[in-house]
């Protein structure tokens, strides 16, 4: 190993160690004191979340339509097969 690669490795280890040691001092914001009075009240909000009472109109969804397959089995297959075999 040459002297320059050793210096690069020592520098990288030192930078990583410094990063780990410094990152421990970074913390989130303090919790703060009281939570009383925290919140918002909108008195003039025209949008109200009504529609959940027993006397409100209910939304009815139509049931799904019955789907039929476009490929139908041949019901007259056996008689047609017998007709084709008779001529052999």
Structural key phrases:
single chain; flat; mainly alpha
Task: Tell me what the structure shows.
- The longest helix is centred in the first third of the chain and has 21 residues, at 3-23.
- The model has no long low-confidence stretch (mean pLDDT 77).
- The chain has helices at residues 3-23, 77-86.
- It is flat and about 95 Å long.
- With 88 residues, it is mostly helical.
- Helix content is 35%, strand content 0%.
- The chain is built from 2 helices and no strands.
Helix content: 25-40%
Assign an overall shape: flat
N to C succession of SSEs = HH
Mean pLDDT across every amino acid position = 77
- Please state the CA-atom Rg, rounded to the nearest Å: 39 Å
Largest sheet: none
In DSSP terms, counting alpha (H) and pi (I) runs of 4 or more, how many helices? 2
Question: What class would the helix/strand composition place it in?
Answer: mainly alpha
Range of strand content: under 5%
Uncertain spans: none
| Annotation, overall tally of beta strands | 0
Distance between the termini: 90 Å
